[in-house]
Amino acid sequence: MPSRIPEETIDEIRIQNDITGLISEYVVLEKAGRNFKGLCPFHHEKTPSFIVNPGKQIFHCYGCGEGGNVFSFLMKHEKYSFPEAVRVLAQRAGIPLQDQKPARQLERYEALYRVQREAAHSFSRNLLNHPQAASVREYLGRRGINEELIRNFSLGYALPEWDGLRKVLASQYPSDLMLESGLAIKKKNGNGQYDRFRDRLMIPIYDERGRIAGFGGRTLREGGPKYLNSPESMIFHKSRTLFGLHQAKDEIRRLGSILIVEGYFDMIIPYGHGVKNIAATMGTALTEQHLRLLQRYARKVVLIFDSDPAGVKAVMRTLDLFLASDVEVRAVVLPQGEDPDSFVRKKGADRFRKAVENAPMLLDFIRDRIVERYDLSRVEQQIECANQILPMMMKIRNIIERNAQISKTADVLHVTDVSILQQFKRMAESGTSRIEYPSRARASASMPILEQYLIKALLKDKRLILGVKDALKLEELSSPLSRKIVQELFVYSDKADFEAQIFDAFQTSEAREELSMLLIRSDEIVDPARTVRDCLLELHRKPLERATRHVSIRVREAQEKKDVKRLEELLEQKNKDLVRKQQNRPQKKKEL
């Protein structure tokens, strides 16, 4: 069992990892007053509702309710346990954890990345130096891939041997790790294993942090699959990885746009010709995970596909993914027989950039492809075409954008906007293609408003916490979560960065979401001292009101039973409660 990390070390790690800097590695943040704002990485949204508060070192999303500090962000985003998040952030800040044994899962992650890195080094040495790689070097030269590009993308060569890589790595890495990494395959008879990649041009696949997660292998010979990819593993998922993003991300951020192509060389060749804001999918359609990844770097996406039917279908499949996002997406279909690789090599980077600049919006592109199928001189064909197009528009959240698309569609169909709107309304009323986008944000229904205000005031001015500790009994708070938060405020109030530290006391995501919301909204409190005073008076008054109501019920019962002695006792108790209630009432300010 790993020993417990000292609280002082955890505090130091938290302090040395600025939350704005950490989150900006995942999310495009823009200044918004004292805070930073961006699109939430935990759910799809069109309008940014994800807030980072550098002063309090916390984040909160008003759309889905997620919130916390640097540790909880990493735990949520990377699926780390708390010790794993602490270790990663310690490494990021250069803080040694000599006494800590790495968590088993994190150690396995690191071992997988190490073996992939060593494999890449071996493949690279083969390509640059081995006589058997001469034909591969010639092939790369013919495609315009020079030594600089080879080194930039760490291209390599797997020797045509059944155990060429295993012989190099066997002394350092166990056989089970070779299998798990996808570099080796178990023999069918169960005895031993052999190299997955043999006699192939090797293309390392980096994750966005610059770690090699897998490989693509291209054969230069006839027979067998043209490309062979690493299998899915703990560290490699094609559905959430974009090839070349690591090399291109700085240029993508600078330009605010990203070009998406299909395949390794469709990314590498344009990149080598100076088109550096480009990344590629790897044999899969774009996924929600890809979209989240894209949104961290740019708000403008250009999809570039081959002109064959499969390429056009691939573009059309992406529509639903992008309509509900805040990403401006355009589509380019290259001339017949061309792909980004061949187009750039034949016509040059400037022509390629021009095609990108003239790219239509994705919805316009898809609408044009649909319209091509119909004879719009016939009314029934107009209706059928409209029924194909309008469901797409119903998914557009932005009303202005939706109305603009309705006008464009009316022009294309040679009908009036009113006709389109009427059809749109009928479809909406009938529920056809209705899309609902429920918010995951909770309305804090479990925590009374009064208790929310008290906590926000204490978070705004922690100097008030000590006084509340003396004046308030926790049982006066009706919400268990309120009691837990206030109790932890009593514990953490003397900490310098208690806003960030207090998150570590809460184990459930619901509690952290509620706390982050209260922390962010604590700035709404104008006069914390007065708010605390008013809240305490109200909280003290409520038990008295309950007691008074209880006594009134008992008085009626005593009157009905004609129990004179009991009636006198109850009336005396009621008078005492009224006096106490009067004493707890706020005093009016004297007139000046």
UniProtKB/TrEMBL annotation:
Record bears the keyword Nucleotidyltransferase: yes
Keywords, ordered alphabetically: Coiled coil, DNA replication, DNA-binding, DNA-directed RNA polymerase, Magnesium, Metal-binding, Nucleotidyltransferase, Primosome, Transcription, Transferase, Zinc, Zinc-finger
EC assignment: 2.7.7.101
Xref: SUPFAM superfamilies: DNA primase core (SSF56731), Zinc beta-ribbon (SSF57783)
Coiled coil: 557-584
Toprim domain ranges (all copies): 256-337
CDD domains the record matches: TOPRIM_DnaG_primases
Keyword Transmembrane: no
BP GO annotations: DNA replication, synthesis of primer
Entries under Gene3D superfamilies matching the protein: 3.40.1360.10, DNA primase, catalytic core, N-terminal domain, DNAb Helicase, Chain A, Zinc finger, CHC2-type domain
Enzyme class: transferase
Cofactor note: Binds 1 zinc ion per monomer.
A molecular function (GO) term: DNA-directed RNA polymerase activity
Catalytic activity: ssDNA + n NTP = ssDNA/pppN(pN)n-1 hybrid + (n-1) diphosphate
Cofactor: Zn(2+)
One GO CC term on file: cytoplasm
Residues in CHC2-type zinc fingers: 40-64
Description of its domains: Contains an N-terminal zinc-binding domain, a central core domain that contains the primase activity, and a C-terminal DnaB-binding domain.
Subunit field text: Monomer. Interacts with DnaB.
HAMAP family named in the record: DNA_primase_DnaG
Described function: RNA polymerase that catalyzes the synthesis of short RNA molecules used as primers for DNA polymerase during DNA replication.
Entry's family note: Belongs to the DnaG primase family.
Protein name as it appears in the record: DNA primase
Native species: candidate division KSB3 bacterium
